[in-house]
């Protein structure tokens, strides 16, 4: 770095309270496979991915799977599925490889044992034989709350005392020595943060049974994988002074090249201004996919949970995000998950799709809902392809989620003579419905489909004259029963284009079918 650049960087740091990013950004995403992927996890992955792509850096993906009780292979597969669906690719890590593998913590046990021994030998960590009950009892005896935390009792045990504990059958945990000084760092999002001396007790890095804890494995992996920007959730902020101290020790031991920069992403809040829980339906990534979110729409919305590309610019592509993203622009305030806004943004992205792409993405939902015969465009029959090709321009601008497409095109693909109206559609069937249907049937029966007269524009003209001009009905009363007969819905694709798609025979059959069921629908 030149002197001028260094001075500029220092000035910017003073001005913003946030340090300059390294030139060769290396970030990581390191989830634990302990449940269904949730939107908070995805947002963390997205921001790390975007920072790496913006800086032309490296995105590392590893799995923290050392919890034998909670970890599962199913959850691991779901995380991979989620990243693949969202097109969040990584440069090094699981299933990709790289120079710092293995990328599953369950396969790195020897590494952690070696580092733990080095920390012990250097005097940065020590054996601790105290049980939780003993720590609580000592706190009460000293006039402190029993939950006050570990009191440093084992720091200076003699070899004789240790031998006595071992003779009792006790096995020690391994604790890191916290220095008697304030711990401070410059957060990329929150600026300067300090933890007062004594506020963080010596903490366990290895259990008495020899299992390494997150407090050891996470920073060791970051150090050995040369991660220099750590972006993670605000809930982990309280553990950062521990990581800062351990990193100092790892640097002294030659294990780490330097201290990474930390950025703590804001909480994602749900209903009632409470932190969005993994158990909240809005948190479930795959539920959003099941409902018909597309990756572009969901990622766009998640990007807005703490960051924005520009004022009044809520809809953008991932390419646009990569171009503009800087984690230092993320707001520290909690972000609120608004499902209505998420759906609205998803609708914008659906409208941006190429029509054939829209159809291709919709087909699996249509097959799931029993509307078409196969789950891919290539496997559909010719009639299904014809109808979907004609229907796509009519419904693409009207759906917000791909899960809504079935309701819009189901009646167009159905061969049924009668479609049972939905409850809200029945409300459109006023006392005049019978007369409207009779007039519509009369005028439509005279249309020569073979001559090419069964076209949306001419059908509109015929019904407009018969029902509105001559019949005297307002358009809502004139076309409501016809729409309900054709689709069974209050909201459907454009009426006359729908009539053209299904053809004369089915149109007339449904009009007659509804007319025959009007009495029982009352």
TrEMBL record:
<dbReference type="InterPro" id="IPR045462">
    <property type="entry name" value="aa-tRNA-synth_I_cd-bd"/>
</dbReference>
<dbReference type="InterPro" id="IPR033910">
    <property type="entry name" value="GluRS_core"/>
</dbReference>
<dbReference type="GO" id="GO:0004818">
    <property type="term" value="F:glutamate-tRNA ligase activity"/>
</dbReference>
<dbReference type="GO" id="GO:0008270">
    <property type="term" value="F:zinc ion binding"/>
</dbReference>
<dbReference type="InterPro" id="IPR008925">
    <property type="entry name" value="aa_tRNA-synth_I_cd-bd_sf"/>
</dbReference>
<dbReference type="InterPro" id="IPR020751">
    <property type="entry name" value="aa-tRNA-synth_I_codon-bd_sub2"/>
</dbReference>
<dbReference type="Pfam" id="PF00749">
    <property type="entry name" value="tRNA-synt_1c"/>
</dbReference>
<keyword id="KW-0030">Aminoacyl-tRNA synthetase</keyword>
<feature type="domain" description="Glutamyl/glutaminyl-tRNA synthetase class Ib catalytic">
    <location>
        <begin position="25"/>
        <end position="341"/>
    </location>
</feature>
<dbReference type="InterPro" id="IPR020752">
    <property type="entry name" value="Glu-tRNA-synth_I_codon-bd_sub1"/>
</dbReference>
<dbReference type="GO" id="GO:0000049">
    <property type="term" value="F:tRNA binding"/>
</dbReference>
<feature type="short sequence motif" description="'KMSKS' region">
    <location>
        <begin position="275"/>
        <end position="279"/>
    </location>
</feature>
<dbReference type="GO" id="GO:0006424">
    <property type="term" value="P:glutamyl-tRNA aminoacylation"/>
</dbReference>
<feature type="region of interest" description="Disordered">
    <location>
        <begin position="1"/>
        <end position="20"/>
    </location>
</feature>
<keyword id="KW-0648">Protein biosynthesis</keyword>
<dbReference type="Pfam" id="PF19269">
    <property type="entry name" value="Anticodon_2"/>
</dbReference>
<dbReference type="GO" id="GO:0005829">
    <property type="term" value="C:cytosol"/>
</dbReference>
<feature type="short sequence motif" description="'HIGH' region">
    <location>
        <begin position="31"/>
        <end position="41"/>
    </location>
</feature>
<keyword id="KW-0547">Nucleotide-binding</keyword>
<comment type="function">
    <text>Catalyzes the attachment of glutamate to tRNA(Glu) in a two-step reaction: glutamate is first activated by ATP to form Glu-AMP and then transferred to the acceptor end of tRNA(Glu).</text>
</comment>
<keyword id="KW-0436">Ligase</keyword>
<dbReference type="InterPro" id="IPR004527">
    <property type="entry name" value="Glu-tRNA-ligase_bac/mito"/>
</dbReference>
<dbReference type="InterPro" id="IPR014729">
    <property type="entry name" value="Rossmann-like_a/b/a_fold"/>
</dbReference>
<feature type="binding site">
    <location>
        <position position="278"/>
    </location>
    <ligand>
        <name>ATP</name>
    </ligand>
</feature>
<protein>
    <recommendedName>
        <fullName>Glutamate--tRNA ligase</fullName>
        <ecNumber>6.1.1.17</ecNumber>
    </recommendedName>
</protein>
<keyword id="KW-0963">Cytoplasm</keyword>
<comment type="similarity">
    <text>Belongs to the class-I aminoacyl-tRNA synthetase family. Glutamate--tRNA ligase type 1 subfamily.</text>
</comment>
<dbReference type="InterPro" id="IPR020058">
    <property type="entry name" value="Glu/Gln-tRNA-synth_Ib_cat-dom"/>
</dbReference>
<comment type="subunit">
    <text>Monomer.</text>
</comment>
<feature type="domain" description="Aminoacyl-tRNA synthetase class I anticodon-binding">
    <location>
        <begin position="365"/>
        <end position="512"/>
    </location>
</feature>
<keyword id="KW-0067">ATP-binding</keyword>
<dbReference type="InterPro" id="IPR000924">
    <property type="entry name" value="Glu/Gln-tRNA-synth"/>
</dbReference>
<dbReference type="GO" id="GO:0005524">
    <property type="term" value="F:ATP binding"/>
</dbReference>
<dbReference type="InterPro" id="IPR049940">
    <property type="entry name" value="GluQ/Sye"/>
</dbReference>
